[in-house]
Amino acid sequence: MDDPGEDRLAAVLRPVRSGNTFEEAVQRILQLVRLGLVPDGGRLPAERELAERLQVSRVTLREALKVLQDQGMLQTRRGRYGGTFVRYRPGALTGPGGQAGGDELRRRAERMGDRLEDTLLFREVLEVGAAELCAASRPTGAHARRLRDCLAATGTAALGDYRRMDTRLHLAVAELCGSPSVAQQYASVRASVNELLDCIPLLPPNLLHSEEQHTALVAALLDGDRERARTVMREHVAGTAALLRGFLS
Mean pLDDT score of the chain, rounded to an integer? Predict the structure, then answer.
């Protein structure tokens, strides 16, 4: 169970900056979807709440939602149980043998260009630093429960939910490091990484190794072992980067 005081959407649903309200509103909602904070079939917060949290007008918000509806990522339903629902199934990108997903991966990587390596490096810097800061605070109480719950969720997740639960664990570490700016930047970079990861198949040996690293990481965080937390996290994100580069080679 989540801690009652936890707001899992806070790192993404923050006020947009003036000047590009429409573009940034689209970006924030895309991050919610790509991070899996609202899963496939899940309902977005109500329009009023979204507009208030993003600090944009209802008109701007509706325009942003319509763009994503036109792209097939969101669906609006009317009636008593209506609302705006996510329609995003990353696994559908990967066809037999991973070929369809591999083609899409290359297309997305080409669009990123030089930003790809920069994104992977930036992710490593953020994640390793966040792990050290989180360990330095030695999470207890509700924070410790949150980490344990996130770890348990990755360990028991069905294959189709694994990446969403994995993102949730990593985002928790970023949010518990003590710096809202780090958490916000991590949410943004992880959404970019997930856009690539969504194109490759989930490999059981890799997931087993990932869970071993997750377990070691959470243990280091709860023990307050800063150096161990840094080492495990660096190895973990390096493994993800290597996997992506392998599928792109």
Answer: 87
